[in-house]
């Protein structure tokens, strides 16, 4: 039997969080440009651009609460898709550093219980919840994601 590299949970947790970020970015990159600022149905709620700004801004809120690197907030009403993609990358990198530090030490995240594994679960769940909102908003506004992009978001092994 060939010798394989052993599974290393800390590395896997960080890679899972990185993949989650790539999936969110992939979705945003595959939206029609018109979807970004389309009014939500009935004129109530956030636009897709505002939802993406919220994802980044919540990451920033946690970075501040946990004593991590600070990131600039995005303005929900005016942030462009390129600005949002760059901001998501910055907040992901800062959170990855925070997560790596917690994993390498006592597993705690200041202001969050129970531990770093739970925090990663929270971060992934938050992004996934809003990816669902974005997909629904895009469809309701007449700019549904392509079937290829929808299936592509589930290709974690290649993202």
Q: How many domains?
A: 1
Radius of gyration: 17 Å
CATH superfamily: dinb family like domain
* CATH architectural label: Up-down Bundle
Which consecutive residue ranges, at least 5 long each, have pLDDT under 50? Answer: none
The multimeric state of the shown protein is: single chain
Helix content: 55-70%
Percent of residues in beta strands: under 5%
* Separate helix tally: 5
Succession of helices and strands: HHHHH
CATH class: Mainly Alpha
The rough form would be described as: globular
Q: CATH fold name, please?
A: Four Helix Bundle (Hemerythrin (Met), subunit A)
Q: Main β-sheet: number of strands, strand sense, barrel status?
A: none
What value does the average pLDDT take? 95
Number of strands: 0
Structural class call reads mainly alpha
Distance between the termini: 29 Å
Describe this structure as you would to a colleague:
With 159 residues, the chain is an all-alpha fold. The chain has a single domain, classed as Up-down Bundle (Four Helix Bundle (Hemerythrin (Met), subunit A)). Helix content is 60%, strand content 0%. The protein is built from five helices and no strands. It has helices spanning 9-29, 48-66, 81-104, 116-140, 147-152. Helix 1 packs antiparallel against helix 3. The protein is globular. The model has no long low-confidence stretch (mean pLDDT 95).
Précis, in short:
Helix content is 60%, strand content 0%. It contains five helices and no strands. Helix 1 packs antiparallel against helix 3, helix 1 packs parallel to helix 4 and helix 2 packs parallel to helix 3.
